[in-house]
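Fig. S4 source data, part A: sequence.
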Amino acid sequence: MISKRVTDAPVFFITIFFSVCLLFFEYIGVLSLITVGFYFTFVNLVPGTVNFLLIRFLLGPVTVVFILLTYLYSALYFTYLGAYLANAAGLLITVPDTGLYNLYAWPFVYIYLFISLITLLFCFAYNRNELATFQFYLTVIFITGGILFYADSLILFFFSYEAFLLPSFLVLYNFAKTRKAVEAAFLMFFWTQLGAIFLIFNFQYIFFLSGVSTFNELTYVVYSPLEAQFLFWTVLVGFGVKFPIWPFYDWLPKAHVEASTNFSIFLSGVLVKFAFFGFIRYFLALGLDLLSWFVYPILLIGFIDASSKIYYQLDLKKLIAYSTVIEMHWLLFAVLNGSSFFWLAGFAMMISHALVSANFFLLIDSVTRRFKTRLISEVSGIFYVTPNLYFLILVMLIIFLGFPGSLLFVAEFLFFSALLEFSFGFFLLIFFVAYFAVPVCFFRSWFLLLFGLPATYLHAKKTSITDLATFELILISTIVVLLFWFGFSFQFFI
């Protein structure tokens, strides 16, 4: 093994210049391709004709192929350029066979498969106007996600990671029904682009100073303390905007509120988790574990801040959005600590949260379709009107608290067992927040929805409000069964 020392930063401005150029060419070329493909896929140019079918179902996949070839070309170019620079310096470069060699990638694959199936079933049953669009969107995410798992090149890894953003933005923007929805789409776009700038600074800084362009080489690079600090914070901000963590998570609740149910399920269950996978893989390759203790105060502030904001929320979707923020702070703490117990707890928590949040979004959609609102100030007394819906909401609230036998219980047991060994004071603080502050704030809103006095209009319209349909009962109950089955067979994920 050859250890390469990263020198000082005289090329910092060169890094900025090439970063801006790369971002420019990426978004001019790739955005144009995606825009054309999505336009012909989404817009009914000639409805009911053969030409429309050809345009809708052929040009979309062709555009995906062009996008994929563009990414591959750019990544191979930078890979071979990095190999040339390293060979010119007398270093031997060996590019390993790429593949799904990361053991920690498998939980993300499970999450993608489960959540994709749930969203497609929901679209087919209740949101068919978005079904074709969402099928195309899932195809794009599947391709880019596969590249994200397979890529050994840093540039290919960056392109595949950023490729999640543009389709997600176009889906959210295309189905925006209000001005707030458009604002939420652009807020998501610009916040995540802020993270992309920090990431590309990080990649280009390493590339121009050491000639490293692959994960295999990155593990052999040695940094000075100042350089390690710079790389650590650029990585944390670059990926932390998309998790998201404090103070960058403001875009997530707004995106959830304005998005359709299927996109909210996919955003919370897959996109946020894929961003976390990107952080895990790159952070482990950099080997900056010793600096992780700097992040603990930030995680604690974010944990308390998101927990306090749950208390006064009226929108049910925002409750789940802030619970996602809390969960990502837990996950980041578990990974940065480095303990095997924390890692197991993190993966169990990640899978359980994906399923729990999906079920909550399905339940919220059931409430919205029946009562035409999801604000707890306008809906109350579900217990008296829709008993099946009430029962499943109550079951999910119990699971959210960590009911024994569920996967979330396994995750919390492992997490707090490891936290007790890490720091007793930190254990008491997190335990108090997690099992007193968060449940009080979270359950307050749901209990008002379930057990409050029925609103006046509910009495007038009681005959027109129906309980859960058979399909809803089967779909939601299946996820509940999965949570307990995964809890009893957790070794399936180890």
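Fig. S4 source data, part B ends here. The longest helix spans residues 50-88.
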